[in-house]
Design a protein that fits this description.
Kinase-like_dom_sf; 248 residues; Phosphotransferase; Phosphorylase Kinase, domain 1; AGP_Transferase; Aminoglycoside_PTrfase; Aminoglycoside 3'-phosphotransferase, Chain: A, domain 2; alpha+beta
Length: 248
Amino acid sequence: MAWEALAQWGEDAVRIEPLSGGVANDVWRLRVGGRIAVGRLGTRSDADLAWETGLMQHLDRAGMAVPVPIPTLDGRLFADGLVVMTYVKGTAPQTEADWRRVAETLRQLHRLTAGWPQRPGWQSSIDLLQARTGTRINLDAMPEEAVARCRAAWSRLVGRTVSVVHGDPNPRNIRVTDERVGLIDWDESHVDVSDLDLNLPHNAAGYDPITQDVVSQASAAWEAAVCWNDDHSIQQLALVRPVEDKIT
């Protein structure tokens, strides 16, 4: 990865400071064309970045507050693994009311992306009932007992609505103002069961107890699989019931 690619956004494009939260990417606050922006440098393929930047443009045109790709001088939305985006202002959600607004914003995302094609290389939770690998997930790296637990949790999602999911709607990736809720860091977005985005604090999505259990179990299973084998994934797997205890 090389930041020399930033020159393709103009001679005045410069890095200001690194931003926290990037795991798979190098993320910086930039100044481009006299305005603050965000740059994300990673190793994703051109097809992957085309999917993500196209999604951002679609959501922006629909009125959602998301990072919008800033083109290079010759009009490309990314170059050599680098994406430059607008900066989304706001603070993390604090109150139950904030989280209800987050839930409605995520549902807006889901409505706007029904029928969207899958991100190149990704598999959904439903796909992983049969498949064993997909981008950041490798079930072959997990103990078979853990795989069985995850698949049992995901099997309860079959038949539910599918759309693009943000994939990581934690407080660091949410920017709340009085006027709107912004969503940043779409690096884990893909097509999946919409409910996976809605395992939120305060049961902000308003699920009944049975549905909340389905969603929380499936979400913990996804977090375990996508991050395996770090402390967070092990903690999440501990939340997934053994197969013999599964509630249907």
